[in-house]
Amino acid sequence: MALAVVVGAGAGVGSVVFRWCIKTFTRLLSGHDDYSASPGASNPHVPWLGPYFVLLAPVIGGLLYGPLVNRFAKEARGHGVPEVMLAVAQRGGQISPKVAVVKTLASALCIGSGGSVGREGPIVQIGSALGSTLGRVTKAAEGRTKLLVACGAAGGIAATFNAPLAGVFFAMELILGTFSAEAFGATVLASVTASIIGRASFGDVAFLTLPAFHVDHLAQYAFFALLGIVAALVGMGFTRFLYLIEDACDWLWRGPEWLRPAVGGGLLGLVLLALPEMYGVGYPVLEKATGGGYAVGFLLLLLAGKMLATSLTIGIGGSGGVFAPSLFIGAMLGSAYGIGVHHLLPGTAGAAGAYALIGMGATFAGAARAPITAVVILFELTGEYSIILPLMLAIVLATATSHLLSRDTIYTLKLRRRGIDLEGPVPGAVIGTQHVGAVMEPLPSPLRATTALADAADLLSLSGHGALPVVTDTGEYVGVVTAQAVAEALAEQPEATPRTVEPLAAPPTAVTTEQPLAQALHALMSAAGTGVPVLDSERGGKLVGWLSHQSALRAVHATT
After folding, report:
1. CB 3.0 to 4.6 Å from 115: which of 110, 237, 519, 525, for a disulfide?
2. In this structure, what is the dihedral angle of CA atoms 79, 287, 211, 399, given to the nearest 10 degrees?
3. Is the separation of the CB atoms in 398 and 231 below 8 Å?
4. What is the tens place of the pLDDT at every residue in 56-114?
5. For 519, phi and psi rounded to 5 degrees?
6. Which candidate, 130, 138, 284, 287, places its Cα nearest to that of 210?
7. If DSSP states are collapsed to H, E and C, what string results for 181-215?
8. How many C-beta neighbours within 10 Å does residue 453 have?
9. Helices 283-290 and 323-344, interaxial angle, to 10°?
10. What is the pTM of this model?
11. Virtual torsion, Cα 323, 328, 332, 333, nearest 10 deg
12. Per residue, what are the HEC states of 384-399?
């Protein structure tokens, strides 16, 4: 707990320094605190250039952060969160401490010079690097180091967005990928500590000023549901377009990597000259859109422009996040959708601003597949409980649509393109290349579903597995019954005790013969007994074997 507080304090201070750097570089390179609030204005430092200074700002920024990233921390390139996820999943939470410094300067220079990216990815990587460094200094165990990395991510999100709950759920849902009492307690401490520091520096206000939210008619829920599905498609489209542009930049560029951001900055400058609202993160534009300040045609132009500007910024080697661009794209989509629905059904559609808020959460959920984080952060931004029901409806539908149509999220796709599967084996690992069918044990004698509890207790005590498969009289697989479940049932009152094992049988996560061993280990580790049954999917899910920790270790021994 003490370490979580220290990491939270470090992430809070880091977020203050990072935001100060962004504002300083933005003022130096554009002459404004946030140029997207005054799109098309000239730079007071070079007034004779007029609005054409945006052609030079990304080039100058690229000349500064390109060599910095290439020389000191190449992992600081891009949007940052996938690297943290990889460090937790496969590298024991180890992140180089220099990433915090390089990421701070590189991302601040990128955003300050017009890079159309967000600040949440960098602050997650900065806070996580601090947590990892503290874990290394204190010689913490691997599990604790991973937790400190998550604490750094939670603290960074909490402080920079004044969203302590969102920081906690972001860390557990995306970074750790699991929920536990220990993880929740530690990330809450880090998040609260960072939020106190952030509020002392930035004030106790939301980082966005959004319109009030109201549901005026029950028919609006149908509109919100449809928006959730549309937003998922847009979020997935943004993901694909992002990596399509990155591939195109990789294919076109043949020079040194340190020079790539500067040369590519010329292309980004052309986009900023045509659409200056794309300069930097763009929160003022987002706020104006949610307030109904743009026509439908311009909203769609801003949506397409943000996709292009963000993808180009990342593709040329820029450093920044994709969370804020996802919110921006969702706000433009939602506002345009809301205006369209209002014109069609003015009596029931309600205000367009409500659809903008729903579009923000649903688009992020469709791209990142983090529904809890999406719900919580939009709730914290608005502070209105009335947003919860329609927000949950749209986000769940967006997440489900994304699950059905895509294997990866905007974060995991970056890793898979590099041949990394977060759920698969670490490259070079001893366990992972084998398939379950090659290492499984013979199937222990299954229990009949009609077996009495007392008889099942005797058989389980003799089996040595702590759990046994249960089948019907015709041999159909029902599930697995554990010794613990039988013991608890026998200890209950006689009238509440089932007479047979069938009500106690529950199917664990399915493990099949063709599954990679490293993937099956996730199911094995969460199993209540000492093993899990293996099914043959080609034979209609028939029981064919048993996978235990011992059989996995024997596979290791056989390859060494």
Report:
1. 110
2. -30
3. yes
4. 999 999 999 999 988 888 877 877 788 888 888 777 888 888 888 888 899 999 999 99
5. -70, -40
6. 287
7. HHHHHHHHHHHHHHHHHHHHHHCCCCCCCCCCCCC
8. 20
9. 20
10. 0.82
11. 0
12. CHHHHHHHHHHHHHHH
Three-state SS at 322: coil
Measured distance CA(102)–CA(109) in Å, rounded? 11
Q: Distance between CA 494 and CA 206 in Å, rounded?
A: 57
Residues of the chain with pLDDT below 50 are none
Residue the block writes with tokens 């694909």: 240
**Which DSSP category does 442 fall into?**
P
Q: Can you give the pLDDT at residue 527?
A: 66
Residue 284 CB contacts under 8 Å (≥ 6 apart), including other chains: 34, 36, 37
φ, ψ dihedrals at 254, nearest 5°: -125, 5
Amino acid at 98: K
CA separation, residue 14 to residues 121, 123, 501 (Å): 13, 8, 56
- What pLDDT is stored for residue 108 in this prediction? 92
Torsion of CA 72, 76, 77, 78, to 10 degrees: 180
One-letter amino acid for residue 303 of the chain: L
| Nearest Cα residue to 157 out of 298, 310, 14, 335 | 14
Residue in the structure block whose two tokens are 């997650």: 124
Only one residue has tokens 């895509």, namely 406
* Residue 242 token pair: 């992002």
